[in-house]
């Protein structure tokens, strides 16, 4: 089942009108089609509901009019049952379209947005210990600032996390709030060209 597709229970609950055609012995078929037509905004179904209503009640009147065991009673009875059977088949045919139209009218499910982040991202190479206290405890903040100055800055936020001794779950919680502008490292002594004679 697709995420936005209605559940089987929803479909079953909204198909109750088909029972009017089945259990109403034809007399309530028109009511079922009128209900479906108004609910799905389909005038053609209203027309079918009116036709089934008129035909079924005309059949009931004809059955009451003709005497018992007459040919007329037999013909009217057969026509009445034919209309009843036609209304059941018709209802079963249009019910999937009816359900699709109802599903299209349903409001879209609410999507929960992530909670807003009120803190602005901080650069781990320029933040003071006090600024870092918003993310880590004061002792770690002091230690990280001292380590940063000793090494000449961090190259990325992962170096910052290692220097702060952050556990993976702690780092994951604040990772989106940290940035790092790498500082150029001082050249190492002894670097230069070697001449071979």
UniProtKB/TrEMBL annotation:
Keyword match Transmembrane: yes
SUPFAM superfamilies: RuvA domain 2-like
InterPro entries for the chain: RuvA_2-like
Keywords associated with the record: Membrane, Transmembrane, Transmembrane helix
Bilayer-spanning residue ranges: 16-38, 45-66, 78-99
Keyword Nucleus applies: no
A Pfam short name: HHH_3
Domain of life assignment: Bacteria
Protein name: Helix-hairpin-helix domain-containing protein
Source organism of this protein record: Dactylosporangium darangshiense
Phylogenetic placement of the source organism: Bacteria, Bacillati, Actinomycetota, Actinomycetes, Micromonosporales
């Amino acid at each position: 089942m697709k995420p936005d597709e209605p559940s089987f229970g929803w479909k079953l609950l909204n198909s109750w009108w088909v029972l009017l055609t089945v259990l109403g012995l034809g007399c309530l078929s028109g009511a079922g089609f009128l209900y479906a037509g108004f609910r799905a905004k389909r005038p053609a179904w209203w027309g079918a509901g009116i036709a089934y209503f008129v035909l079924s009640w005309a059949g009931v009147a004809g059955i009451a009019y003709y005497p018992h065991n007459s040919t007329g009673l037999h013909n009217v009875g057969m026509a009445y049952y034919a209309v009843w059977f036609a209304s059941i088949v018709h209802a079963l045919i249009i019910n999937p379209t009816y359900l699709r139209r109802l599903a299209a009218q349903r409001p879209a499910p609410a999507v929960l947005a992530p909670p807003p982040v009120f803190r602005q991202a901080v650069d781990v190479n320029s933040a003071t210990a006090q600024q870092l206290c918003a993310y880590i405890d004061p002792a770690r903040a002091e230690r990280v600032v001292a380590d940063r100055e000793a090494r000449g800055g961090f190259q990325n936020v992962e170096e910052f996390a290692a220097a702060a001794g952050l556990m993976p779950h702690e780092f994951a919680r604040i990772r989106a709030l940290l940035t790092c502008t790498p500082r150029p490292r001082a050249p190492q002594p002894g670097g230069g060209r070697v001449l071979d004679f």
